[in-house]
Amino acid sequence: MSFVRNLPIGMYGAVMGLAGLGLTARATATVLPGVIRAPAYFTELWVALGLLFFLVLVPLYVVKLVRYPEAVRAEFLSPVQLGFCGALPVGMSLVAGGLAPYLPPLASALWWTSFGLLLAFQVWALFRWLSGGIELAQVNAGWLIIIVGGIVLPGPGIALGHVEAARFVFGISAAAAPLVTALLFFRAVLGPPLAEPLRPTWFILLVPPSLIYANGLALYDSLWFLENLFYFGLVLAAALLVYARRFWRWPVGAPWWAFTFPLDALAYAAARYAQDHPSPLWRSVAGATLLIATLVVVLVLWRTLRNAAWRRV
């Protein structure tokens, strides 16, 4: 059972990357109707894979919690790992969004569970950080998942009719996003280089500008100035792709899924922008960002399964 003991909670990033791609493809289908249909084999494949990973990981992590509580406690106490604990409720909310058209009551129950868990995790994370004793080298972009993860929940929440609750959790995370992002850029510029296994997590910086824009407009349709965040997200994505040009040298592990869901978020924002600006240019941007996100998800899924197979040999 050492596999269960060593299973990182950050593996829920796989649920985020897979289910997030399915929801993004559904959104992109509205601006590329001749290319993508929703629901269809392409969109629902990723939703189904996200659900499958969720159904596999939840019982495994429950076993870990029961048999190895000290290992779970260590993840929630470690400044390096704490942020990735938010992948559980955020991934759950994306699964809820995937199930919304098919099983609304179950999807709604999952969404409310993710809502409650995320709030509880955010309170714990703030308490842990306020307690001090954290070195600058331990700061990483995974912190965005647990504190800023609430900007993800409105997408599924609106679809399920939970608009007020979505505004509540969005407001908390949107307010925290500039503070955490500023700290991360400070750490990037003045701190030591991030360890290679964690370098994919810099891509999580794409999530705040992408989803504060896309979900912010979905909640408050008069806030058109949020479009500036999407422009910044495109430039940041270009810089991150250059930064990751030698990514194949980085050790494969749970942090590799940090390549996926941020690119999903950028593609989702691009689809939203193309809906509001239906020109060939922006439809092409929506298609290109979805293609990049898809290729990256396929690559990370393949490397993850290949790595798991090698460990069993």
Overall description:
The chain has 313 residues and is mainly α. The protein contains 14 helices and no strands.
General shape: globular
Report the helical percentage: over 70%
Number of strands: 0
The total of helices stands at 14
Average of pLDDT:
93
Element order, helices and strands? Answer: HHHHHHHHHHHHHH
What is this entry, summarized?
This protein has helices at residues 2-5, 12-28, 41-67, 69-77, 79-82, 87-99, 104-130, 143-148, 154-159, 163-190, 207-219, 227-243, 260-276, 280-312. The chain is an all-alpha fold. The radius of gyration is 18 Å and the shape is globular.
Descriptive keywords:
313 residues, mainly alpha, 71% helix, globular
Secondary-structure blueprint of this entry?
Layout: H1 2-5, H2 12-28, H3 41-67, H4 69-77, H5 79-82, H6 87-99, H7 104-130, H8 143-148, H9 154-159, H10 163-190, H11 207-219, H12 227-243, H13 260-276, H14 280-312
